Amino acid sequence: STRGPLAGRHLLITAGPTHEPIDPVRYIANRSSGRQGYAIAAAAARAGARVTLVSGPVTLPTPPGVTRVDVETALEMAAAVEAALPADAAVMVAAVADWHAEAAAAKIKKPADGTPPALSLVENPDILAGLARHATRRPRLVIGFAAETDDLLANAQAKLTRKGADWIVANDVSGDVMGGADTHLHLVTAAGIEDWQPMRKDDAATRLVARITESLS
Ligand code: C5P
């Protein structure tokens, strides 16, 4: 769009889970629905930004005005994020698997003696940390999410430093936030912590996009 407070800006957003194949018919996944990331993409497009939404497998419709790139694995997500640069701001909302399995080429069979197969796991790249420390095309504003069930704010602050992000949006997932319409976020920055109180994911998205707009202007 050529109108709105984010006109002329490019926002890069990741959302949803990743699927990490074990063999041709099985995968490792997580409970991310993609709803928060999609809401942020929709809010950014409404504000006039050009929006690239790199999405893991979800069942949500593409928000109006958003360019969606579908991926399955963390490695595909990392490549799609790199391909979408440069961006003015990046919001990494995806629940990226920490590991992928060394996938078997054929379906793993149950052995006659009942021995369970062992999965060999390999670490995935940290897409957020990679962007925050990008040698040539670091977005001006790099934002991560931290979904935690325990020690929410301490973990979020640790993540801010460890990953080199500008902001971490801390997300208490001890209730039924995963897949639900409501959320309770804290915005964690070098300046401190803001409690945003429980609200609809759509309203949280609008609020975050307003903050991004402020920060980029
Ligand atoms: O360390 P943790 O997975 O809790 O960090 C969450 C944040 O890091 C989210 O913003 C998520 O999108 C991002 N992340 C990532 N690549 C990974 C793991 C997490 O971009 N491999």
TrEMBL record:
<dbReference type="GO" id="GO:0004632">
    <property type="term" value="F:phosphopantothenate--cysteine ligase activity"/>
</dbReference>
<keyword id="KW-0285">Flavoprotein</keyword>
<feature type="region of interest" description="Phosphopantothenate--cysteine ligase">
    <location>
        <begin position="11"/>
        <end position="217"/>
    </location>
</feature>
<keyword id="KW-0288">FMN</keyword>
<feature type="domain" description="DNA/pantothenate metabolism flavoprotein C-terminal">
    <location>
        <begin position="6"/>
        <end position="214"/>
    </location>
</feature>
<comment type="similarity">
    <text>In the C-terminal section; belongs to the PPC synthetase family.</text>
</comment>
<feature type="binding site">
    <location>
        <position position="159"/>
    </location>
    <ligand>
        <name>CTP</name>
    </ligand>
</feature>
<feature type="binding site">
    <location>
        <position position="163"/>
    </location>
    <ligand>
        <name>CTP</name>
    </ligand>
</feature>
<protein>
    <recommendedName>
        <fullName>Coenzyme A biosynthesis bifunctional protein CoaBC</fullName>
        <ecNumber>4.1.1.36</ecNumber>
        <ecNumber>6.3.2.5</ecNumber>
    </recommendedName>
</protein>
<comment type="pathway">
    <text>Cofactor biosynthesis; coenzyme A biosynthesis; CoA from (R)-pantothenate: step 3/5.</text>
</comment>
<keyword id="KW-0460">Magnesium</keyword>
<feature type="binding site">
    <location>
        <begin position="125"/>
        <end position="128"/>
    </location>
    <ligand>
        <name>CTP</name>
    </ligand>
</feature>
<comment type="function">
    <text>Catalyzes two steps in the biosynthesis of coenzyme A. In the first step cysteine is conjugated to 4'-phosphopantothenate to form 4-phosphopantothenoylcysteine, in the latter compound is decarboxylated to form 4'-phosphopantotheine.</text>
</comment>
<feature type="binding site">
    <location>
        <position position="107"/>
    </location>
    <ligand>
        <name>CTP</name>
    </ligand>
</feature>
<comment type="pathway">
    <text>Cofactor biosynthesis; coenzyme A biosynthesis; CoA from (R)-pantothenate: step 2/5.</text>
</comment>
<keyword id="KW-0436">Ligase</keyword>
<keyword id="KW-0479">Metal-binding</keyword>
<comment type="similarity">
    <text>In the N-terminal section; belongs to the HFCD (homo-oligomeric flavin containing Cys decarboxylase) superfamily.</text>
</comment>
<feature type="binding site">
    <location>
        <position position="98"/>
    </location>
    <ligand>
        <name>CTP</name>
    </ligand>
</feature>
<dbReference type="GO" id="GO:0004633">
    <property type="term" value="F:phosphopantothenoylcysteine decarboxylase activity"/>
</dbReference>
<keyword id="KW-0456">Lyase</keyword>
<comment type="function">
    <text>Catalyzes two sequential steps in the biosynthesis of coenzyme A. In the first step cysteine is conjugated to 4'-phosphopantothenate to form 4-phosphopantothenoylcysteine. In the second step the latter compound is decarboxylated to form 4'-phosphopantotheine.</text>
</comment>
<feature type="binding site">
    <location>
        <position position="145"/>
    </location>
    <ligand>
        <name>CTP</name>
    </ligand>
</feature>
<keyword id="KW-0210">Decarboxylase</keyword>
<keyword id="KW-0511">Multifunctional enzyme</keyword>
